[in-house]
Amino acid sequence: MNLADLSWDSVDALSRDVPVVIPVAALEQHGHHLPLFTDSMLLGEVIRRVSERHAADVLFAPLMWLGNSHHHLDFPGSLSASPRVYLDLLLGLMENFLSYGFKRIVFMNGHGGNITPGKQAVFEVRQKYRERKDLLLLFATYWEFAAPSEAGHPALKQSSMGHACEWETSMIQCLAPHLVKPVENLEDVSVGFGFEPAYRGWTSKDRTEPGQMGSPRHATPEKGEFLFTSFAEGVSAFLEKVKAWDGKSFHV
User: For a pLDDT cut of 70, what percent of the chain falls above it?
Assistant: First the structure.
């Protein structure tokens, strides 16, 4: 069910145990070869495929394209809500749905910069409603629901998501090939953060001159379809767990 397509009384008629999925992504630089809207396009396609499988039992909010992308602001065209503003935006969205009585709220994320404020948001709301044992507040990122390089596709070079990388480039080549510039001569850029296991504060310019992190030159549309299929299956299986939750246990 798509929230944007429903009338208010149709929403009011829903069971309050129906999971609510709020897709969150970004508009930001993706190197010289991919469009600024890459994260939102990719998450939108994953959600489209998942929503076809859950057309009657999950409520999908419209995708929120503005993300926390301050680390990309050295690259013109990137748009961002600052971390604290973004945190408040997520808090407000949760409060909206909670005020209507919904109890299972899932942020499905498509941008790495949203992860820290997103987790903080669901943590804060859970503390606010600490007496409520019937709430399930979740923040998840779509590419964490599959391990494509371990799932029967030996041609994948990367083992994890980067940025404007083999994975994202393959998916845009599959979804909107006319928006992808040539990748054959693009350099590989490390996806590592440095100083692990510590987390180092960074901007994108610290890590990459051209904007990508990973190996976009290995991208193919066929890999993109494989990735979309893997991620959609993983997210769909996860939502089955959300639906099956008994409404009180901490674990599934």
Answer: 98
Domain of residue 112 covers 3-244
Residue with tokens 């709430």: 135
Number of independent structural domains in the chain = 1
Q: Is the dihedral of CA 155, 193, 187, 115 positive or negative?
A: positive
Cβ 196 vs Cβ 66: under 8 Å: no
Look up the CATH number of the domain holding residue 204: 3.40.50.10310
Res 229 pLDDT > 80 = yes
Kindly state whether residue 252 falls inside one of the protein's structural domains.
no
Contact (CB, 8 A) for 107 and 125: no
For residue 19, cis peptide bond before it (omega within 30 degrees of 0): no
- What DSSP letter does each residue of 38-64 carry, written as one string? HHHHHHHHHHHHHHHHTTTT-EEPPPB
Distance, CA of 1 to CA of 146 (rounded, Å): 24
Q: Which amino acid is at 149?
A: S
Element (H, E) at 185: none
In a domain, 249, yes or no: no
Tell me, yes or no, whether 250 lies in a domain: no
